[in-house]
Protein 1
Amino acid sequence: MWGESECIGFGSAEFYISEIKKDLANSIIKKNHYSKKVYRATYINLGVFYKSILKGVLQYGYAMNPASCSNIVKGTALNEYLELNRMWLDDDCIQYAESQAISYSIKYIKKKFKKIKWIQSFADERCGGFGIVYQACSFDYFGEHNSVFYEFEDEVYHKSIITDSRKNKKEELISKGFLEKAVEMNLRQFRYIKFIDIREKKNCLLKQQPYPKHYK
């Protein structure tokens, strides 16, 4: 009669996720994530709380090329998918905190963002494990590819920094000798997809593959 109550989080009294301000989420990612960088196309910012203390962040948003969604799952509109852009959790948390937080975040998205049909994420070779946390959350695996990154002044940049639309940032790096001093790296990226609407799996244009083994 009164409709559904607003969903503001998901989990238990001891361990739960809840939306937080983007500025707060970004500051935590800059300080703690291995990339030390935030992603501009994020629009869902979830804090991970353990005993009411903020212990981590999950940020969902668009892919690097937002319109590429229909090349992954046929017929997908821009507001019908998400990518897990950034995730960081403090080691001082519950056992299997990452997989639990992802599971709670998916349940939260299903309840509050009802148009979302699937979620994509990439495991980075630098993290090890080849995406074990996504395997624990029953994501499907769709293979790997190599991406070019550059290491410069103790930070790692994706190759897109060369064509970045943020002219000031690009020019700042170039002025510091980025083009001459940056070290190129080829790193493996492992693609995982969670189908919230399982009917969409038949529309996936990629071939599902067996999970890669961990820590070869």
Protein 2
Amino acid sequence: AGLPAAWAVARNDFRGRALVRALVMVPFVMPTVVIGAALRTTFSRLGLDGGRVNLDQSIWAILIAHVIFNVAVVVRVVGGYWAVLDVRLEESARVLGATRRTVWRDVTFPHLKPALWSAATIVFLFCFTSFGVILVVGGPRQATLETEIWRYATQRTDFATAAVLACVQLALVVTLVVASSRAERTAVQRFGLRQ
């Protein structure tokens, strides 16, 4: 969802570009409760909270909230990287007869892989460790590892289980960061890019 916005701010020079970049960042810096309340109010006003379509406290509500929050990450990470890629590579491919799709697949996308790995890792970690979004938007029926740690520690006072879940979460996060770093480093070395 963030790639079109990343492309727009990276490769297009238009009036208000800085404003668009700032507006994309607003949900990311707002408290989770505010965004969650705004999303639930929007569902209510649009009739999406109980009629034929019920998004309130659903997995779709959580997904929409995470998209709203994390588009900013993709725009900042991928857009920033995309802005400094050498445009001449794409132009050369176009001059040699490559279609837009071929240029994207064979030139642009491979060079964006390090930024895409970074953004994907950050977004996944934000979603995986999401706490406020799950409680505010998802409600008590939806649970993640993060909310279960909180429930075991505060509501069930089962600190041993909460500690085990916290260790599992820590191990998963560290594994993901290490794997992402290796994949990013491999992509950078493959194309001779500088980090």
Protein 3
Amino acid sequence: MRKEITVAAQLRTSRGKNEARRLRAHGLTPAVLYGAGREAVAIAAEPSALLRILHSSTGHNTIFDVAIDGGETTPAMIVDWQLDPITDRLLHVDLKRIDMSKRLRVSVPVQTQGEAKGVKQQGGLLEIVTREIEIECLPDEIPEHFTVDVTELMIGQALRAGEVPLSGSMKLLSSPDSVIAHVVALRREAAAAVEAAVPEAAATEPEVIKKGKKEEEAGVAEEKGKKK
């Protein structure tokens, strides 16, 4: 999804670990801009602007403008980034130029709405199996997320990727059979059903043993009769 956001950047004259440390010390994040059939360039940008994009509702699917001081201004997306595991400081970013006339492959979050009947009426549990699907579409048509209604799901039923409503130029790339959400019986209920079946099985077992014992006693009596 394209947003009216412009991230200012500057060209980097050199690369390497020392240069990256120097940039971070001056409050900048090293980055690389590539794609759209043009040469990759090393740049530096303000980390706060990039973090705001990553933490926005559209996240890394956000298309924004990168304006290089003394150079090009182009639509781009964040395709990869590295965070400090302790401070969460943005250490490096890979940016990809976007041709707004060409289709893209993107992963889009899937959100559920409604209370499943299998939960409300049958006491089941709604499990979310897949939280995003992969689609292909034009850049301007990338959705913020998909919303699917799970109200009609009963125990044993599932909602699959092929049922997610698509529009415009969108094409599903994930397997249509991928389960988004399903309703399952609670484990304690399943265990209770097993426990309920055990006494019944135990009650029929002595009957079989008793019957076999009678037949055995009858056979012994018959043998004694023959001997006499």
